[in-house]
């Protein structure tokens, strides 16, 4: 839904979940659109053979509908060359113009 432009994520956690899905299907346009302009790369380098398989939200601070900023700690698991791996990150989000945007890891 969010990937097609039908609405926006109402919380930082919802944006985190939608960005995980975008990484899983390699939706570069959505990832770039939801990346804050101060940290947005020119393109997203998807590692060949890497497949995102699971997302676990570990904690969140603020990031609700009435907040302007928030943090989401997560663990994302992936498989590459038959081996499992994981990314553990605490990500910073801001809300501008009614939309949540990913800024960077903390």
Short description:
The protein is α+β, with helices and mostly antiparallel strands.
How would the blueprint of this fold be written?
Layout: H1 12-24, H2 28-33, E1 51-62, E2 69-80, E3 83-96, E4 99-105
Antiparallel strand pairs: 1-2, 2-3, 3-4
What features would you describe in this structure?
The chain is globular, with a radius of gyration of 13 Å. The protein has a 4-stranded antiparallel β-sheet with strand order 1-2-3-4, with helices on one face. The chain starts with 11 loop residues before the first helix and ends with a strand. The mean pLDDT is 96. It has 2 helices and 4 strands. It is 18% helix and 42% strand. It is an alpha+beta fold and 106 residues long. The chain has helices at 12-24, 28-33, and strands at residues 51-62, 69-80, 83-96, 99-105.
Features:
four-stranded antiparallel β-sheet; alpha+beta; 18% helix; single chain; 106 residues
Which stretches are poorly predicted, pLDDT < 50 over at least 5 residues? none
Fraction of residues in helix: 10-25%
Strand order of the largest sheet: 1-2-3-4
| SSE ordering | HHEEEE
The mean pLDDT is: 96
In whole angstroms, how far apart are the ends? 28 Å
Let me know the number of strands.
4
Q: How does the overall form come out from the CA principal axes?
A: globular
């Amino acid at each position: 839904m969010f990937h097609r432009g039908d609405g926006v994520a109402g919380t930082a956690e919802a944006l985190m979940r939608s960005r995980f899905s975008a990484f899983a299907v390699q939706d570069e346009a959505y990832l770039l659109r939801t990346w804050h302009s101060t940290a947005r790369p020119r393109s997203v380098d998807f590692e060949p053979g890497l497949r995102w398989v699971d997302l676990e939200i570990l904690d969140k601070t603020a990031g609700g509908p009435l907040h302007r900023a928030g943090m989401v700690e997560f663990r994302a698991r992936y498989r590459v060359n038959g081996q499992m791996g994981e990314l553990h990150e605490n990500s910073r989000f801001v809300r501008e113009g009614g939309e949540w945007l990913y800024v960077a890891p903390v």
